[in-house]
Amino acid sequence: MKYLITIISLLFSSLLLAQDVNMQTATVNQCGGVFYDSGGEFGNYGNDENFILTICPENAGQKIQIDFTTFITQLGAVPDVMSLFNGDSVAAPPYGDFSGTNSPGVVQATQDNTSGCITIQFVSNDAGNINGWAANISCLTP
User: Would you state the pLDDT for residue 17?
Assistant: First the structure.
């Protein structure tokens, strides 16, 4: 019984440590939680945003994986665009640009990415906004 209580408390505490991340200009090191647009779980992202977020693993040798479960940004003459990069800056090799309902899907740092990080740039215009996205963050050990 003592072991069961210990295991349950370890599982519960690890779930509490996985914090959600809203789009912002920052670098975070984590292997859990949910990545949201700047409006968080229940709000829209804002107008005129230009953020760069780098998500890195907690431990050396790990690789970040981001699994987009929902994704929608505003389309139009000047769409709101998310750009993803395979590394720790916007100078890293790009995965591509995503807007509208063109979701990135599952994105993971590649073997040749020594940092294991993924960098996300999001730019929105001033013509309105929409729901945004939610994506699960995890780390893989090759």
Answer: 57
